[in-house]
Design brief:
The complex is a heterodimer of chains A (about 120) and B (about 110). Chain A is mainly β and about 120 residues long. Chain A has no helices and 11 strands. In chain A, strands 2, 4, 5, 6, 9, 10 and 11 form a 7-stranded mixed β-sheet that branches. A 4-stranded antiparallel β-sheet of chain A has the order 1-3-8-7, with no helix packed on it. Chain A starts with a strand and ends with a strand. Chain B is mainly β and about 110 residues long. In chain B, strands 2, 4, 5, 6, 9, 10 and 11 form a 7-stranded mixed β-sheet that branches. Chain B has a 4-stranded antiparallel β-sheet with strand order 1-3-8-7, with no helix packed on it. Classes of the chains: A mainly beta (about 120), B mainly beta (about 110). At the A-B interface, strand 5 of A face strand 4, strand 5 and strand 10 of B.
Chain lengths: ~120, ~110
Amino acid sequence: EVQLVESGGGLVQPGGSLRLSCAASGFTVSSNYMSWVRQAPGKGLEWVSVIYSGGSTYYADSVKGRFTISRDNSKNTLYLQMNSLRAEDTAVYYCAREPPIFDYWGQGTLVTVSS
Amino acid sequence: EIVMTQSPATLSVSPGERATLSCRASQSVSSNLAWYQQKPGQAPRLLIYGASTRATGIPARFSGSGSGTEFTLTISSLQSEDFAVYYCQQYNNWPPGFTFGPGTKVDIK
């Protein structure tokens, strides 16, 4: 059974950093495309980043230069390193498998950027 | 950038009735469109991809149609578990990006 479990969210001050993790089971992260998608409170879905099975990465303009997507094949885990956080980055962050059609999603982890 | 719009923003429907949700793209996305359902406090769930192909385990009462810039999600007979927010998503111009519509909330009339 495919499962995705995010962790690492929390309260962080503006300008701070946070690293999110997404532990996968039931499939191999390195063999799939993987993405992060976020949802601000009460708002819609916003794609954040993708990593291809070959290792190429892409980012939304809103996070480019501040966020880094990566994976640890030995741990079958996806990461999102978030630096220079802003209030507008406040959201639930989901990891999702197999973009462009996101067939499995984690339950999400809440990131709150506030002083 | 392709902009997705959805209408209506809220749709009030009685159980057992038909619901028709619309999604429009600012330029053609061919059939590269997906629909997701999201219930409060839950992650989105994939319903439809390729504009009209149901995802695994999705009931036949959900159907998608359209191509180019105009798309429709139809729920033929609403069940209590179908009251949720529905998002469309284009994936015609990836990489790099995927864009979602703002969502349509289907609530109980």
